[in-house]
Design brief:
- Chain A: This is ABC transporter ATP-binding protein.
- Chain A: Pfam families: ABC_tran.
- The complex is a heterodimer of chains A (270) and B (303).
- Chain A is an alpha/beta fold.
- Chain A contains 12 helices and 9 strands.
- Chain A folds into 2 domains: 2-96 and 173-269, P-loop containing nucleotide triphosphate hydrolases (Rossmann fold), CATH 3.40.50.300; 105-171.
- The longest helix of chain A is centred in the C-terminal third of the chain and has 17 residues, at 186-202.
- Chain A is globular, with a radius of gyration of 18 Å.
- The model of chain A is unreliable at 1-19 (pLDDT under 50).
- Chain B is mainly alpha-helical and 303 residues long.
- Chain B has 2 domains: 2-73, no CATH class; 83-301, MetI-like (MetI-like fold, Orthogonal Bundle).
- Chain B has 13 helices and no strands.
- Chain B is flat.
- The chains are: A alpha/beta (270), B mainly alpha (303).
- Chain A binds chain B through residues 71-73, 92-93, 95, 97, 99, 101, 103, 105, 107-109, 118-119, 121-123, 150-152, and chain B through 190, 192-193, 195-202, 206, 210-211, 214, 217, 295-297.
Chain lengths: 270, 303
């Protein structure tokens, strides 16, 4: 675990953004369920501004638990956790965090524009501004011609695009994605990966935390990969993926990519 | 010519399907559209015919058999009327029948409307707090198990015979299916959706209004489908007990009067009218349900 602390980020980026650039800080975080199950243990992690962090590991390694703790859906039982410089509950109220789940979680009775603007509606943003922002994010994911369409008329990949658009509408500082592409076919998955990276690169200040089972996905997307092992869930290692962006299909077939995938897989086996 | 088309087409099996429509499409596209519409509406009417004819045949056979058997056996109409007796009785008393139907419709609709409004409102109250649900819902169930006929006289004592008491009895019978269905609907909102609303800092009220009630709509409408027929039953039962005569008596009142006077044929006419009323009421609610859910809920999409 001290090795995981040492593996913290590219010093260059950290130094520039300073202490305020710390978005998520976890110190010796542990979570024990009331029935005695240890969900996560001794997790140390510091996430800075503009990072793209993938969490990889088998089921039951505590990836989702860490996410739920950051989102404030569940508490931790030991250690210190700060999100956006405050507690997870307070951080959520700042409207700077957005979420994407594996299921698209769109309201089936609402048109896309209403689905996408839902976070703003809940905050009481005036309609005119809502529509403007809704059109902006739907254009961002290539669905601006589908404003008035209901979710059921879309394919799985398009629904996921809408779900991402909804997350982006409040221009979040922190985007939490829990296996968003897990249910998609490989081709759709790759094109969504490309789009997600493009969107993330346009907004250098957005930090993405991304859960996946898929080692290839992690090696393609991340600036750093957090490899986790189960029973009890803890961080095995944090690997840097220094390959510069933009990353294209050439990167997918490069020996460098292969090496990263190999390194992540090897760490997983330990 | 055929050979040529086949060689141009990559898929040979398209050949037979495509070649007849090619000349039509090329020469007059409008004509082709018209033909397509005509054939689709033709298949629709054919579908209606195929759906309606078998039950109609059964109906006609049944009525004919009834008429013939009673006519042959010589049973008196006051014991068992023939279909022709029922039609005669209905047409002779059509004015009274109309008044009765109107009264019963008013009572049933009022009772039903009350049950929808209060049923949904009460379910929302129960869904807002688990504590309230746990402490109050058992009594709602117990209330449901008390036979309405047993409490009806109390209602008459409190509200007096007539419209008020009858509407309340219709309401009491129709209330519970709406309450329990709505409550199940409100409680079966997807966990992920609820989490999402929570994470986006939705208030309890916003979650109810924007998520849980719309998500419960299929359940609410299912409850309404059960309750609408029940409210007709409730209105007629109410009229048995609390019906008042004069010119305003409903179907239930007319039935009690007809039975004491041994006007069996008219009694049948009233009973059948009540049945038709229940069916029409159900079909209306069913149509409303399909209309509201058609665009997004699986239950209504293919119907």
């Amino acid at each position: 675990m001290s090795s995981s602390l040492a593996a913290i980020p590219s010093a260059g980026e950290e130094a520039g953004s300073g202490a305020s650039g710390l978005l998520v800080g976890m110190e010796q975080i542990g979570k024990i369920y009331p029935n005695g199950t240890v969900a996560v243990q001794n997790v140390n992690l510091r996430v800075g501004e503009g990072e793209f962090l993938c969490f990889v590991g088998p089921s039951g390694c505590g990836k989702s638990t860490i996410f739920n703790m950051i989102a404030g859906l569940t508490g931790h039982t030991s250690g210190r956790l700060s999100v956006l410089g405050t507690t997870p509950k307070e951080a959520r109220k700042m409207n700077e965090i957005a979420f994407v789940f594996q299921e698209h979680t769109l309201l089936p009775w609402s048109k896309l524009i209403d689905n996408v603007t839902m976070p703003l509606t809940l905050r009481g943003v005036p309609k005119k501004e809502r529509i403007r922002e809704g059109e902006r994010v739907l254009e961002l994911v290539g669905l601006k011609d589908y404003l008035k369409v209901l979710p059921r008329q879309l394919s799985g990949g398009m629904k996921m695009r809408v779900s991402i658009a909804r997350a982006l509408i409040s221009r979040p500082k922190l985007l939490l994605m829990d296996e968003p592409f897990g249910a998609l076919d490989e081709i759709t998955r790759q094109s969504l990966q490309d789009e997600l990276l493009n969107i993330w690169r346009q907004d250098r200040k957005m930090t993405v935390l991304f859960i996946t089972h898929n080692v290839f996905e992690a090696a393609f997307l991340s600036t750093r990969v957090v490899v986790m092992t189960p029973r009890p869930g803890k961080i095995a290692d944090i690997l840097e993926i220094p390959t510069p962006f933009p990353r294209s299909d050439d990167y997918r077939s490069s020996p460098e990519f292969g090496r990263h995938v190999h390194a992540v897989s090897e760490t997983l086996k330990h | 010519m055929e050979k040529l088309v086949a060689s141009v087409n990559v898929l040979p099996e398209q050949e037979s399907g495509a070649s007849p429509s090619v000349p039509a499409a090329a020469s007059v596209p409008d004509g082709r559209m018209g033909r397509k519409n005509a054939s689709s509406s033709g298949s629709l009417s054919r579908k209606i015919v195929s759906l309606a004819v078998p039950p109609l045949v059964v109906f006609v056979l049944f009525v004919a058999l009834w008429e013939i058997v009673i006519r042959m056996s010589g049973v008196q109409p006051y014991l068992f009327p023939k279909p022709s007796d029922i039609v005669t009785a209905a047409s002779e008393n059509w004015h009274n029948l109309l008044v009765s139907v109107r009264t019963t419709i008013a009572e049933a609709v009022l009772g039903f409307a009350l049950s929808v409004v209060l049923g949904v409102a009460f379910a929302v109250l129960l869904a807002l707090s688990k504590t309230v649900e746990r402490s109050v819902y058992p009594y709602a169930i117990i209330l449901q198990t008390i036979p309405i006929v047993a409490v009806a006289p109390i209602i008459v004592i409190w509200f007096g015979a007539g419209m008020n008491a009858i509407v309340i009895i219709a309401f009491l019978i129709a209330f519970f299916p709406i309450l329990s269905n709505t409550l199940i609907g409100l409680n079966s909102t997807e966990m992920n959706m609820k989490n999402l609303f929570y994470l986006y800092n939705a208030t309890k009220w916003q979650t109810i209004w924007r998520l849980r009630i719309p998500a419960a709509l299929p359940y609410i409408l299912a409850g309404m489908k059960i309750s609408c027929s029940l409210s007709v039953v409730g209105a007629i039962v109410g009229e048995y007990i609390a019906g008042i005569g004069g010119l305003q008596g409903g179907l239930g009142y007319a039935i009690t009067v007809a039975s004491t006077r041994l006007q069996t044929a008219y009694l049948f006419a009233c009973g059948l009218t009540a049945a038709v009323m229940g069916i029409v009421f159900f079909l209306l609610i069913n149509a409303l349900s399909n209309r509201l859910l058609r665009s997004w809920h699986d239950s209504a999409i293919n119907s």
